Structures are given as C-alpha cells and as structure tokens.
Amino acid sequence: MARRTASLLTHWSARVFSVEFNGAPDYFAIQDKHRGEPAPQVFRKVQSSDRCYSLLVCSSDRIRRAKFYAELKDKLLRSLPAECELSPMSSFLPHVKDSLIKGYFLKANPGDSLPTERLLRDLIQSESLLVCSYLKCENSRQWTQRLWTHTGSSVMSKEYCVVPTDAPDYHPSTLNIINSDVFYSFEEAHQVLRKCGDIIPEATSVLELLPSRAEARSKPDFPVIVIEGLDATGKTTLTQSLRDTLGAVLLPSPPQCLSPWRARFDQEPPLIRRAFYALGNYITAEQIVQEGMKTPVIVDRYWHSTASYAIATAVSGPPCNLPAEGSEVYRWPRDLLQPSLVVLLTLDPEERKRRLRDRGQGKTEEEQELDHNQLFRLKVEEAYRRISGPACVTVDAGPSADQVLQQVLILIRDKCQL
C-alpha cells in the first residue's frame, strides 16, 4: 500500500480530478499557485461556508480495491450526517492506461464538518484511502486542496491550488475498461476469480466448471448464429423458431450451469461480476464446439452483450462519451470462438416497454436501468453496433414474429450458406 501511495503522490500534481453530478462529470486540476483562474465548475455549486472532501481508493490489490470501493459507499451512506451530499469521483493521468482511481466527493455544511472529519479520520486508518479536504480562501473565489496523512492530519508539506481544466479527449473510465470492465482473454478473467477464492467461496465452484485454458479454435463444421438485443426485443421467440426451423441446437448465454451462482455474483463489484460473466462466454464456446460438429448452433446472447452492457455502465453520461468507433475496447477476444453471424434485434423504445409490461417478469438491475434511463439504453445499443470481429447485423424486430424469422433466415442463407 505504501509503495502504491508513493507512486500516486509522485505524479499527484499532474492528475485530473472528476466529480459527477447527475451523470455529468466536472473536471478540475491542481497546481502550485493560482494564476487568476476562476473556481472550477464543481466548486461554483458549493456555498463558501461548506466543507468539501474527496476519498480515493488506492489499494494495490485490485480485488480488494473493488470490494472496498463498493463497501465504502455503503459505510458513508450509513455513517455520514443526513445533510451531507455524496457524489462519484475519480482521478487519472490523461492518456495513461490503468491510471484511474475511483472514490467519492462529499460536501458537508459547517455544522456537520466535525462528525464528518471524525469519520474520515477513522476511515483513513485503513491505508486504502487518499483523503483530501478543500477550503475556500478568505476574500477570494479560489479553493485549495490539502491531502491528509495517515496520522489523520489535514496538513501536508505542500498545499495545492484547485484550478479549472478542459475535459479530456475521452471519458476517463475508458482508461481502465480493458480487463477490468470488459475482459479480452480467458486468463485475465480466470485470474480475477482465482484471486477471489478466499473472500468468495462460490468462486471455487465456478472455476471447477472451466477448462484449464481457452484457445481460439477454428469454427465448427456447422454455422453458429448469435441473436443479440435488449430484453423484450423478441430474442426468445426468434431463437426457438430458428432452432425448430433449422434443426439446430439452442444454447443460452450465460450457460445454464452458472445459474446457481448468478445472484451471488450480481451482488459483487463490476470487476468480479464482469469476470464471472466473461468466463461464462468461454463455457458457452466449449458447448458450441461440441454441438457445432453435429448441427447448426443458435446462441441466445454471447460476448456482444457482456461487453456492451459493461461499457455502457462504465462510461457515464451520453453516448458521445463512449470510446470512439474503432477503439480497442470493441475488439473481439482473440481466444474466444467467433460466431458465423450475429443478429442484433432492435425495437422502438415504447414498443419494447409495452412488451416488458406485458411480460411482468423480474429483471436484473441493468435491465431495470434500461427501462428508466434512455441514455443508458442508447449507450448499450451504440456499443453493440461498434463491436467488431464479427459486427452485428441489425434487424428490426417491430414486424410480426414470422416476418422477423423470415428476414433472419434470408440472412443465414446468405451469410452461412444454410
């Protein structure tokens, strides 16, 4: 921990800080002295008498860092005075991969500053946190940042001035997406679950289902067709119809063998949850190889869903914050079996909501988010479209089920020679 903290502090003044309000990040930087700049946007929303703090999680163990970050939010919400305001926050070195550290920004009114600081002094003893306080200079619009030491003091040898900075070229969370939010190899995902064994006993059971390693294989003798799309776009109806029409095998993704543990891993932080679902794709790939030697294979979701939901969740704000088209975050894992064809079903949002209401089934947290957050839905759909190797072929799911089936069968005959 001490080594990681020292590394972070070495480049501390080069870091950019981001505070999110309603999904929109406000950025600021620090420097040795003010040069007449106005206060950053985030501090213009703060009363001059309020006290502000930032807590950034910096454990060197990324499994424990992910767990601590999630647990920290719960502890803050339980323990802070009711009037304190809590917002997601991050800090990063521009253009430096894996430099992002996450945490929270909190604002307390003067009457709550003492109990708030007592809580922060207790938390900082864990040595997994970097805590800063922010003060408004007297007779000035300017703010300063002071980094607390692990003795609980709020004074360090150097005080920094808080200054505005331009938004980065791309959303900062993209710096850490690869093999944290989206996994691009069996070994990377396997390593995460293997390291979870001492804190999540169920991880051992999942690992027992996996092959010792995954290799990119040549495609099976028969075509592999993946059907993708948001909930209630007609995937189940279409996949079952394709199975019956083509005499194919239908495989769900995630695979059924992971069902006993899905609820458990859905409660975990993104790093662990995403590794679990990534490994599910490799189990599905093994099943595809076995079945695809005998008959065509239809797959209900696959890596496109895993990646699209993860990218859309990691990147806050509107779709323009997504990594640019052609970014490496959209590339297919080299060691994961590629399908012959990927069909993406799309549907008018109001019609999709109507179908969801008619179904009345329970939904995951991410599916619930799709229902009430239009920006999240748009990001998921855009991420689907940007994934390459193979890319999705979009099909409108608005017409009747039979019309959609016929359109997809034409695609299969054209692309797969069936």
TrEMBL record:
Keyword Coiled coil appears in the UniProt entry: yes
Domain Thymidylate kinase-like: 227-407
GO CC terms, sorted: mitochondrion
Keyword Transferase attached: yes
Keywords: ATP-binding, Coiled coil, Kinase, Mitochondrion, Nucleotide-binding, Pyrimidine biosynthesis, Transferase, Transit peptide
Predominant localisation class: mitochondrion
Localization per record: Mitochondrion
One GO term of the biological process aspect: dTTP biosynthetic process
Name of a matching Pfam family: Thymidylate_kin
Catalysis: reaction(s): CMP + ATP = CDP + ADP; dCMP + ATP = dCDP + ADP
Gene Ontology MF term list: ATP binding; dTMP kinase activity; nucleoside diphosphate kinase activity; nucleoside monophosphate kinase activity
Top-level taxon of the source organism: Eukaryota
InterPro entries: P-loop_NTPase, Thymidylate_kin-like_dom, UMP-CMP_kinase_2
Enzyme Commission number, as recorded: 2.7.4.14
Family according to the record: Belongs to the thymidylate kinase family.
PANTHER family linked: THYMIDYLATE KINASE (PTHR10344), UMP-CMP KINASE 2, MITOCHONDRIAL (PTHR10344:SF4)
Name this polypeptide is given: UMP-CMP kinase 2, mitochondrial
Provenance organism: Anabas testudineus (Climbing perch)
